[in-house]
Amino acid sequence: MTTPPARGVLRVLGIDPGLTRCGVGVVDVSPDRSARLVHVGVVRSDPAAAIEQRLAIIAAGLRAVIDDHAPEVVAVERVFAQHNRQTVMGTAQASGIALLVAGERGLPAATHTPSEVKAAVTGYGAADKRQVQAMVARVLRLDALPQPADAADALAIALCHAWRGGRAAAAASGPLTPAQRAWADAERLARR
Amino acid sequence: MTTPPARGVLRVLGIDPGLTRCGVGVVDVSPDRSARLVHVGVVRSDPAAAIEQRLAIIAAGLRAVIDDHAPEVVAVERVFAQHNRQTVMGTAQASGIALLVAGERGLPAATHTPSEVKAAVTGYGAADKRQVQAMVARVLRLDALPQPADAADALAIALCHAWRGGRAAAAASGPLTPAQRAWADAERLARR
């Protein structure tokens, strides 16, 4: 179990869903938008294993991260049907597992599109992966880019959620979207 | 808990994955291909609820069906990316949950495409839904078509798995596909 976040700091678990490599990144984000790395890693499953066993391994790995680091909210990269059809279904299934595990632990979850993540982290929605990774390393004051890329992506998703959600919730005048509601709930918890 | 199947009879749980309505059907299939209805139903989740809560509700509902009826194998309809993009991701996530629940209960799982299901049940891969439902009702000696359609589809998937897997495993000369391996394992269990 990691040290709990300081008062007012939001701990976010970002997940880059995948069957073979599922990136996980936990960050503590302060109200002034500064951020600290809590955990980064990858949950792997053997491509030769049966799909039902692979999904069970991923679920177990994600539960372990939640139990070890106690995030207050889970952010998952949104999967699109128009991507590579051979892998998109596995990615979608892994994203379902990520959301399920959040729900079963009583954590709010939100999804963000790849371009939302890029825009939130670099200020530019068409940024390339390398630019996103470099910015993640800089924000978290890491000596090197997190490896593999799935792990760096997970950190970017977590940062995106904290930064976007925070502003969105503060600016919202109408009913909250699920992501905004998740943030608002998480903020409330973080301030207790 | 339902009565266990007779010796040599395979109990299959068929799942028609969906977020709003997830069809579930349990059938006992004899080596002579005759079949008996054990359970049919639908696990529902509220479209207004958060996705992580919907997936948790579906997982809990599927686990309850497995615990109540003790199937030996789980068959899930395969989802395709080219279908309606607005719902396909939710369906893919629900299918991931179905496979996960099977894996976590130690059950082999297999997926079948809609046309495999139609062909196995009616002998015709382009059969319409009504023809499939009518054949399911006839095979299981039901007085009426199972309602809603998702429940009937789940029964068709279960029958498809028993009928296709059985023949495929018997005829297989090369390495088994995951579905065939699942059947072979299930047959072995059923014969103990």
Automatic annotation (TrEMBL), chains A, B:
Provide the residue positions that the database annotates as binding Mg(2+) 2.
E77
Q: Which reaction does it catalyse?
A: Endonucleolytic cleavage at a junction such as a reciprocal single-stranded crossover between two homologous DNA duplexes (Holliday junction)
SUPFAM superfamilies given in the database record: Ribonuclease H-like
Which Gene Ontology terms cover its molecular function?
Answer: hydrolase activity
Q: Which CDD domains match?
A: RuvC
Q: How is the cofactor bound?
A: Binds 2 Mg(2+) ion per subunit.
Q: Which InterPro entries does the UniProt entry name for this protein? A: RNaseH-like_sf, RNaseH_sf, X-over_junc_endoDNase_Mg_BS, X-over_junc_endoDNase_RuvC
Primary location class: cytoplasm
Query: What are the binding positions for Mg(2+) 1 in this chain?
Result: D16, D150
Cofactor(s) named in the record: Mg(2+)
Q: Does the keyword Acetylation apply?
A: no
Which first-to-last residue range defines the signal peptide? none
Described purpose of this protein according to its UniProt entry: The RuvA-RuvB-RuvC complex processes Holliday junction (HJ) DNA during genetic recombination and DNA repair. Endonuclease that resolves HJ intermediates. Cleaves cruciform DNA by making single-stranded nicks across the HJ at symmetrical positions within the homologous arms, yielding a 5'-phosphate and a 3'-hydroxyl group; requires a central core of homology in the junction. The consensus cleavage sequence is 5'-(A/T)TT(C/G)-3'. Cleavage occurs on the 3'-side of the TT dinucleotide at the point of strand exchange.
Subunit-level organization: Homodimer which binds Holliday junction (HJ) DNA. The HJ becomes 2-fold symmetrical on binding to RuvC with unstacked arms; it has a different conformation from HJ DNA in complex with RuvA. In the full resolvosome a probable DNA-RuvA(4)-RuvB(12)-RuvC(2) complex forms which resolves the HJ.
Family, according to the entry, reads as follows: Belongs to the RuvC family.
Query: What name is this protein filed under?
Result: Crossover junction endodeoxyribonuclease RuvC
